[in-house]
Each structure stands twice: as C-alpha cells, then as structure tokens.
Amino acid sequence: MSAVDITFYINAAIAIYAGWRVFVTDSMVRASFFLLISFLAVGVIMLLLAAIYLGVALFFMMAVEMMVMALFMVMFMMNPAGLNPMKMVHQEKVAIGVGLVAFLALSAAALFGQYPVRPVPEGLEPVVSLGHELLGDSMLVFESAGVTLLATMIAVVMLTSHRGRYGEANHGSRPPGLEPGGDPADKPSESEEEGGHHHHHH
Amino acid sequence: MTLVTLLMVAAALIGIGLYGAFSQQSFVMLMMGLELILNGAMFAAVSFWALTGGGVPEGQLLTIIVMAVMAIEMAMGFALVVSVYRAKQADMTEALDGLKH
Fold it and tell me: What is the DSSP letter of A183?
C-alpha cells in the first residue's frame, strides 16, 4: 500500500467518523467543528485526486462556513457549551432507516455499475483547465452563479431586516389605514398560538 | 483508492447526512445534515472526474457549482431560521405546526 493509499484511508475514516460525531456530541460548537473536520478530510482526499483548486477551496470556504454555523448555533441553541447531555431527535428509527437505505442503494450502484477507466491524463494542469473552462465555454454558468449569489444576498437582507414594508418591523407589515389614524387596511389576523417549548421574549 | 472505495465513502457521508437531516429537531443541526449530504455529493463528483472522467473540466465545474449552491443554501436557510424565530419564537422544527394535519 502506497503512501497515497494510506493517506486516503486515514482521511476517509476521519471524514466518516467526524460526520457521525456531528450528531452524537453534546456540545453544539463541537458539532460544527466536527463537521469542519469532515470537510477538511474530504478536501485532503480531493488534493490526492489531483483536484487542487477544489481541495484548497474546500479548506477555506468550509472554515468560514463552519464558523458562521458555530455562531448561529450559539444564537439559536440552548446548550452551546455542552454542559448538559442532550439528544434532540425525532423519528429516529425512520431517520436511521432512510440513512441506511441511501447508503446501501448508493453502494450497490457503486459496486455493480460498469464504469469506464479513464484516469486523469499525465500533463493535465487542473487549475489552468478549470480556469479556461469557467471563463471560456462555461462563462454563462459562472455569471449565472454570480447573479444568483447577488439575489441571495438581497433576499437574506430583506428577510432579516428590522424594517417591514411600511415602517418598523412590529408595525411595518400592516398597510396604513384608509383614513389617517384609522384601522389598518387589511384583515386583522387571528392571534396565533405560541409555538415551541422555549419562550424567549425580548 | 479505487472508484468503488471512493464512492462508498461518499455514500456513507450521504447516508449520515440523511440521518441527520431527518432526525434532528433543531434547525441548525438539520442544516448540518444537509451540508454533509452536499459534502458526499461533491466528493463523489470529484472521484468520478478523477477516475472515469479523464480530467474533463466540466467535472470540476460541477463541484464548484455545488459549492456555490451550498453557500446559497446556508445563507437562505439561516435567514429563514432568523425570521421564523422572530415571527414565532420557534427554534425547533416541532414548534412549527401551522400546516400540521
């Protein structure tokens, strides 16, 4: 077994183990760090497979994305430091069944499929060929991805801004009255029941 | 490092991600399951590119697009989590039962 094979097996084991530990750990920030470790291991395997740009892009993109996830964990979860044991799952048997079925079906497709053997040619420079492809034949895909990212940024700012359509967020989603100082011009909504077990009022 | 081994590792990642996406009650953990699925899918795409694609550039392009989709999905998902929390004080999936039968 060559050094490449040993590195691959170690990183594959790290990726799968860290992926499993994401959902088993108590501390939420450690869950996002385990996910980061899984991504870094997959990035190392991508470097072994000669996808140099993709491996390094995985490293730096996933580092930042997992930090953002850890931030959202601390914002939204009640046990970020892992001081209490915690297992918040629902429909666990269904979930295990679905995961197993997916793994078995995809492994069967991998084992019994007839795939041609066409390895990467010797003199290929993967970064140069990716650059030529992105900015040449697939320029439309590249630019569409850019516009989609812009639309996402606008949508995210709209969804999370404190200002509604007509004013501040608490009052800004009802249109103003037909007469000045009158009732809002849309139908009054029923009072909705409070959801969730956690009542954080601020 | 044959194609079958690589694809089985990718299948394991996708299976674990599906388990997480189906079973977790918190929105953020659900999204971590989705991230694992996309991780497995990207890994499978790169292994197909390297071992059966002959280094054709569209293989890397697909992986880059999946990475961009991952970023978009995370951004939109967290924006929706924030606005759902503001509207209903809900931080678990069980708390959203407006459309429940």
Answer: -
Q: Identify the CATH assignment for B3-90 out of 3.55.50.30, 3.40.50.720, 1.10.510.10, 1.10.287.3510.
A: 1.10.287.3510
H-only helix segments in chain A: 3-21, 28-48, 52-76, 92-112, 126-134, 139-160
Q: What is the pLDDT of residues B23-41, one digit of tens each?
A: 988 888 899 999 999 999 9
Which among B3, B35, B76 has CB closest to A156? B76
Q: What digits encode the pLDDT tens for the residues A37-78?
A: 999 999 999 999 989 999 999 999 999 999 998 888 888 876
Which two structure tokens, joined as six digits, stand for A180? 């000045």
Q: What is the ipTM of this complex?
A: 0.91
A152: containing domain = 125-174
pLDDT per residue over A94-147, tens digit each?
999 999 999 999 999 999 988 888 888 888 888 998 999 889 888 999 999 999
Q: How far is B101 from chain A (nearest CA, A)?
A: 16
Q: Is the dihedral of CA A10, A11, A14, A16 positive or negative?
A: negative
Of A16, A57, A77, the CB nearest to B13: A16
Cα separation, A35 vs A17, in Å, equals 10
Interface test with A, best of B39, B70, B84, B93 (most A CBs within 10 A): B39
A195 and B96 in contact by Cβ < 8 A? yes
Report pLDDT digits (tens) over A141-162: 999 999 999 999 999 998 888 7
- Residue A3, min C-alpha distance to chain B (Å): 11
Q: CB-based contact (8 Å) between A123 and chain B?
A: no
